[in-house]
Design goal:
With about 290 residues, the chain is α/β, with parallel strands linked by helices. It has nine helices and 14 strands.
Length: about 290
């Protein structure tokens, strides 16, 4: 089933919608790459797909870009899509402008504008002399030539140094301000956390956890005994428990709540608490993945 491309009139609402999308490979022995994918995403946001190799992240981008056309389910896109693949498709002996004009010969003015914006005005310098960060920016430039409303970026931070990563993060933030929807895949949770509005954790072709980062205010309580007493105190305080192990709770705390006052309220002779710490995105990911 192909991707439905709609007009841009509702871009401030849902920019991308996937309904029960499944992609498999093979005839006699099928391998499921994506299983029953369902997402709805808005323009002006960055959504990151995070998971181990083989989780289905790149396959999702290929489906959304139209590179993969045979799949089950429905994909609806409002506007057009720009795709920045993991592997570059540039000619090393050409300059940045020559590479882009080769693919888009009728968009010379737009090409010059994009290269200026991304600080890639390097004249006749061949891209064989570019750093990896510059080459990734050139890949991104290609996806921006047509002014697409949705930008797909496969492992954009992979192999970049700190300065190049910071520069790419700034570009992503600028695209969000313009109302673009950016979908990226990455293994680097720290860089993802800096640019993303939402994280989709993936494993074996499925999304098993969705996190909206502005609501991600989680803490971990470690204890030695009396979990029922601690649970009751948290419930009485309207504190939501979003995860737990035998000797710990993960709680979600409202932005305005003072943590010191919360600790004071749940401490006591009947509560054997031995630890209280902020829960990092990486900790959440590893716990959910290994769960």
């Amino acid at each position: 089933m192909g991707v439905d491309f709609l007009t841009n009139e509702n871009i401030n609402k849902i920019s991308l919608e996937c309904d029960n999308v499944t992609k498999s490979y093979g005839v006699f022995k099928k391998t499921i790459a994506i299983r029953n994918l369902g997402i709805k995403e808005l323009g002006g946001t960055c959504v990151s797909l995070v998971g181990p190799n083989g989780a289905g992240k790149s396959t999702i981008l290929k489906v959304l870009s139209g590179s993969i056309r045979k799949y089950d389910g429905k994909v609806t896109v409002r506007g057009s899509v720009g795709y920045c693949p993991e592997i570059s498709v540039n000619f090393d002996f050409m300059s940045a402008e020559e590479n882009l004009s080769y693919f888009y010969p009728h968009n010379i003015e737009r090409i010059k504008y994009i290269l200026t914006r991304l600080n890639l005005n390097t004249g006749k310098k061949p891209i064989s002399s570019f750093s990896k960060g510059m080459k990734r920016k050139l890949d991104l430039a290609r996806s921006l030539i047509l002014g697409s409303e949705i930008i797909l970026m496969d492992e954009p931070f992979d192999g970049l140094d700190a300065e190049s990563s910071k520069e790419l993060s700034k570009i992503i933030e600028d695209l969000k301000i313009e109302g673009k929807l950016i979908l990226i895949t990455s293994h680097d949770l720290h860089k993802v956390e800096n640019v993303s509005d939402k994280i989709l954790f993936m494993k074996d072709g499925t999304i098993f956890q969705k996190l909206i980062l502005k609501h991600l205010n989680l803490y971990r309580i470690d204890f030695t005994e009396n979990s029922d007493v601690i649970r009751k105190k948290l419930t009485d305080l309207n504190i939501k428990i979003v995860g737990e192990t035998e000797l710990s709770f993960i709680i979600q705390v409202d932005e305005g709540l003072e943590i010191c006052k919360l600790i004071t309220k749940i401490l006591g002779d009947d509560c054997k608490i031995v630890g209280f710490s902020r829960e990092s995105l990486e900790s959440i990911y590893m716990r959910e993945l290994c769960g």
